């Protein structure tokens, strides 16, 4: 049996923090895992900016409620789920993901949680595990699945390399420059073809 | 983060082998994991009966294509998937599950594969792992999920006992007689209430 593990932001939905940056006009919130490889550093930086501007979880959720999934993402995912098992592995938070999962027809997502104080301010976050995407791939492999992993960011690289097969999808030049051995796909058509090749060989 | 692991047959869809037994009139195919605790013995017994009657995978798939999911199962699962992550852990086969997963809106299912010869006869099966349901629970726990498991059969007992929470759903008397400490639910309303209690405490 095969299982396909996909990153969420940049692959199926827009980058949530970039959308929130646009909404608030706070330029500094544009930084994502595509730019910064140290996730803890990135999240602490974001939480500090939210505090400075007195922005709460609800403010981010209001932005997310207006986000649409990427053009073609639902159709791509629907077809993929008719072919094999799919799990989304994301470093986002369940508090952010819910409305997007609804739009995508509730695929299974393994992600993280925020810690929010009584006033609704985000004070910290709870990673399920360090390098949790890679660990999820290892867990599925230990359960005797053949795994395919794909994403666009630094935090996807260890899972892609650990999986039995994988590729990048719309990754930025900074990652392409370093990861010359990983195949890049940029349309859902190419992406699905790449996954189908893997499924047919396993 | 929480993850709810559900058995498939008897919980969300009818027992496939019972349906096939009715369709073919072969009484001996009525035996399921609710009756026989040794899964390998049960499958070898089934494969032998299929061979005797020259019944192929396609014959079983024709029966499955006419099966409807249990009354209320889709609504139950839809609500549950809007609340938390759900994975179906089943000892059925991907060759059987596909049309039923479509009816249920493609939840993630971890199950097994059949080995089919060139004439379409089922000659063997491939368990992903011995006691695979329990191992999946252990894997999710190792990934720092709080796990809830539920089912109706012998092959669900180890996963239910290993999970952080769990219950039986419409289990037969033979299991209730032995497993007096496991809570039994018999309607989707009770079932959902039991899971919600778990989610609220985790």
Plain-language structure description:
The structure is a homodimer of 202-residue chains. Chain A has a seven-stranded mixed sheet, sandwiched between helices. The first copy, chain A, has a single domain (2-15, 67-200), classed as Rossmann fold (3-Layer(aba) Sandwich). Chain A is α/β, with parallel strands linked by helices. Chain A is 44% helix and 20% strand. The termini of chain A are close together. The mean pLDDT of chain A is 95. Chains A and B meet through helix 4, strand 2, helix 5, strand 3 and helix 6 of A and helix 4, strand 2, helix 5, strand 3 and helix 6 of B.
Can you give keywords for this protein?
homodimer; 202 residues; alpha/beta; Rossmann fold; seven-stranded mixed sheet; 44% helix; 20% strand
């Amino acid at each position: 049996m095969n299982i396909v593990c996909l990153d969420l932001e940049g692959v199926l939905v827009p980058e949530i923090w970039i959308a929130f940056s646009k909404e608030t006009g706070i330029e500094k919130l544009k930084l994502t895992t595509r730019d910064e490889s140290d996730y803890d550093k990135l999240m602490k930086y974001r939480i500090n900016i939210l505090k400075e501007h007195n922005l709460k979880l609800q403010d981010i959720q209001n932005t997310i409620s207006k986000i649409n999934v990427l053009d073609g993402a639902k159709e791509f995912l629907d077809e993929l789920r008719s072919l094999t098992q799919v799990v989304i592995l994301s470093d986002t938070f369940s508090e952010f993901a819910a409305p997007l999962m609804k739009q995508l027809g509730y695929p299974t997502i393994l992600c993280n949680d925020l810690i929010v104080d009584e006033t609704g301010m985000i004070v910290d976050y709870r990673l399920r595990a360090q390098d949790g995407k890679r660990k999820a791939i290892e867990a599925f492999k230990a359960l005797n699945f053949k795994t395919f992993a794909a994403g666009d960011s630094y935090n996807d690289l260890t899972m892609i390399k650990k999986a039995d097969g994988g590729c990048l999808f719309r990754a930025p030049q900074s990652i392409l420059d370093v990861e010359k051995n990983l195949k890049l796909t940029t349309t859902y058509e190419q992406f699905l073809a790449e996954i189908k090749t893997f499924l047919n060989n396993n």
